[in-house]
Amino acid sequence: MHFLNRNTAAIQALAAIFTVLIALAALVGVKWQIDAADRIQQAQSARDIYREYLSMAINKPEYAQPDYCKFAATPQEAGYEHFVEYMLYTAEQTLSVDPGWKETFTHTFKDHAQYICTVREADQYSAAVASLLLEFQSNNCSAVQACP
Q1: Beta strands in the chain (DSSP E)
Q2: How far apart (Å, rounded) are the C-alpha atoms in residues 78 and 92?
Q3: Sequence-separated contacts (24+) of 78-82 with Cβ below 8 Å
Q4: Which of 45, 67, 102, 132 is deepest in the core (most CB within 10 A)?
Q5: How would residue 39 be classed by pLDDT, with cut points 50, 70 and 90?
Q6: CA 139, CA 47: separation in Å to the nearest integer?
Q7: What are the distances in angstroms from CA 47 to CA 40, 52, 80, 92, 101?
Q8: How far apart (Å, rounded) are the C-alpha atoms in residues 107 and 118?
Q9: What is the distance between the alpha carbons of residues 74 and 49, in angstroms, rounded to a whole number?
């Protein structure tokens, strides 16, 4: 008992330090949980957006594998351009969560090469999509014939 009486102040100081360390650990844990929940939500949103894109492709197969030159200067051109913009938006959302989607969109761009090769303002997209567009254009557009 004498030991506790002599060292009461030191024991109280250690207890206070220990309490602060536990509180800091709890704050770090909460931050980690919030960040993990945010990553999970972003990944789910990206999957949902991609699923919606696939649904659009199923409902508009003429846009999914188009003959862009056939659409040019027709009322369908605007619908097709919006379809491709949604595809690029989908690429932005999915690539921001997982860069592993790059191959999926590189493959998808091939079906839209005639249009993708006309995109000149890649900087309006996220860095990942702009990079993907420019890479696709430099590797594929020389072989794509322009519409008559």
Answers
A1: none
A2: 21
A3: 80/115, 81/115
A4: 132
A5: confident
A6: 28
A7: 11, 9, 22, 12, 11
A8: 17
A9: 28
Q: Could you tell me if 81 and 40 are in contact, meaning their C-beta atoms sit under 8 angstroms apart?
A: no
Give the mean pLDDT of 33-54. 89
**Would you mind telling me the total number of residues written for the chain in this entry?**
148
Band (pLDDT 50/70/90 cuts) for residue 4 is low
Residue type, 64: A
d(CA 100, CA 97): 9
Q: In this structure, are residues 115 and 80 in contact, taking their beta carbons and an 8 Å threshold?
A: yes
Average pLDDT, the chain: 89
pTM here is 0.75
pLDDT tens track for 29-38: 888 888 788 8
pLDDT digits over 104-133, tens only?
A: 999 999 999 999 998 888 888 999 999 999
Residue with tokens 């199923």: 58
- Which of these, 114, 112, 117, 120, lies nearest to 137 by C-alpha position? 117
